[in-house]
Amino acid sequence: MMVAGGHATSPQQLLADAVAAMRRGDSASALSCVAQAQELAPYDPHVRMQKALIHRASGALPAALAALDEALALDPYNFLALLSKGAVVEKLSGERRAARVYENALKLAPTEANLPPNLKSPLARAREVVEKTREALATYLADQVGPLEAVGGELAQRRLEEAIGVYAGVRKVYQHEPLLLHYPRLAAIPFYPRELFPWLPELEAATPMVQAELKAALETRMDAFAPYIAFPPDVPTNQWEELNHSPRWSSLFLWKDGVRQDPVCEACPQTAELLSRLPMAHQPGFAPTAMFSALDAHTHIPPHTGSTNVRLLCHLPLILPGPARFRVGNEERSWEMGKAWVFDDTIEHEAWNDADELRVILIFDVWNPFLEIGERERINAMLAARNAFYAG
What pLDDT, in 10s, does the model give residues 201-227? Predict the structure, then answer.
C-alpha cells in the first residue's frame, strides 16, 4: 500500500481507477493511474496489458505495441498479450506480419470449453489469418519452386509437393505408427511408386475376373462377410465404437494371418490362384492377409494405423457405385476402377464411401520392397520368437 493524493491505494486500485477513467473518456488520467501502478508493480505484466489497452482504445497503436512487448518480456507465454499483439500488428503491418504472432498465440490458446466468450471472436480471427497466410505461402512456394514434373519421378514429385505443404504449415508431418513392429530406416511413403511393383498391371488386368467371382460370393456367401471390427467386451473401442461389430464394414477373407481360408478360396479359385502368384508377404502367424473389404453406403472408416511397416497393403477396387475416397497421411485419392495402389498402412489413413450403395475392394499385403531377402527371413524369425517368448 502507498499513499497517493492522501488516500491509501494499491496497483489493483490504480488499475480500477484507470478503467473508470477510460469509461469517462479520460485517457490521460487512465495513463497516469497506470504509470503509478507500474511504479508499484514493475514486474506485473497485467499493468503493461492495461497500458496497451488504453493506447489501443485511443488509437495510439505503436504505443500499444510497445506496451504489449513490455508485457511479453515479463511473461513470454501470456496468451492474451500475444493475441492482442497479433491484432495490433495486423492493423499496423497487415495479415502476413500478424500471422507469425497469431501462430504463437494459437499454441497457447485454452480449450474451447475454457475460452472466455469475449475471446472467441478474436481467436477465430487469429485462426483465419494464420490459415489464409499459410495457404498463400504454400501457393507462393509452389510458384517459385516450379513444376513438380521437373524434379524427377513420382516419388520425388510427391516428396517435394508434401515438403512445400509442410514448410508452409498447411500439412502435418506423418510418421510410421505401427501397432506391432516398427522396422527402422524404412521411408515413410504414403503411396508407393508403381514402378516398384511390376506385377500391378497383371493384377489390374484381372479386375473383371475378380469382379465375377466377387459377385458370385456376394450372391451365395454374403452371410460369410463378417464385421471387420469386432472387439471383445473388455477391450476399449476408442474411435471404433460406431463400427464395432457392425456389418457396415465387413470382410470376407481368402487368407487370414497367414492361413489360407480354403472354403473362400475354393469359391473364388481364379482370384486365389492370382494371389498365390503375387509376392504376398508370407509371415507365419501374421501374413499374408487377403480379403474382400465391403464398406456400406455413406460410411466412414476413422483414422487408424496398421501393425508393421515391413509389409504394405495393396488395394484393387471391384465395386464402385459412386464417389469413394481414401487418405494416407497428407495425400487423399479416389479409387478408380481398374487401377490398384500400394500404400503404407502404418501411416495414419482413413476411408469414405460417399456413394449410395456398397463399395468393395480387394486388399492384400506384400513385403516392403526396400527389405532384402535376408531381412525378411530374420523378421519372420523375430516375429515367431516374440510369440514363443510370451507363450512360454
Answer: 999 999 999 999 999 998 888 788 999
pLDDT tens digits, residue range 155-176? Answer: 999 999 999 999 999 999 999 9
* Domain 2-137 -> CATH class: mainly alpha
What are 76-101's pLDDT values in tens digits? 999 999 999 999 999 999 999 999 99
The proportion of the chain whose per-residue pLDDT surpasses 90, expressed as a percent, equals 90
Say if residues 211 and 349 touch (Cβ distance below 8 Å).
Answer: no
Question: Which regions of the chain carry the CATH code 1.25.40.10?
Answer: 2-137
HEC sequence for the chain:
CEEECCEEECHHHHHHHHHHHHHCCCHHHHHHHHHHHHHHCCCCHHHHHHHHHHHHHCCCHHHHHHHHHHHHHHCCCCHHHHHHHHHHHHHHHCHHHHHHHHHHHHHHCCCHHHCCHHHHHHHHHHHHHHHHHHHHHHHHHHHHHCCHHHHCCHHHHHHHHHHHHHHHCCCCCCCCCCCCECCCCCCCCCECCHHHCCCHHHHHHCHHHHHHHHHHHHHHCHHHCEECCCCCCCCCCHHHCCCCCCCCEEEEEEEECCEECHHHHHHCHHHHHHHHHCCECCECCCECCEEEEEECCCEEEEEECCCECCEEEEEEEEECCCCEEEEECCEEEECECCECEEECCCCCEEEEECCCCCEEEEEEEEECCCCCHHHHHHHHHHHHHHHHHHHC
CATH classification (class only), 194-391:
mainly beta
Cell triple for residue 146?
Answer: 516450379
| Position 3 pLDDT exceeds 50 | no
Question: So what's the pLDDT on residue 135?
Answer: 97
CATH 2.60.120.330 in the chain is located at: 194-391
Q: Could you tell me the pTM of the whole model?
A: 0.85
- Write out pLDDT tens, residues 316-374: 999 999 999 999 999 999 999 999 999 999 999 999 999 999 999 999 999 999 999 99
Q: Rounded to the nearest 5 degrees, what angle is found at the Cα of 355, between the Cα atoms of 349 and 358?
A: 85
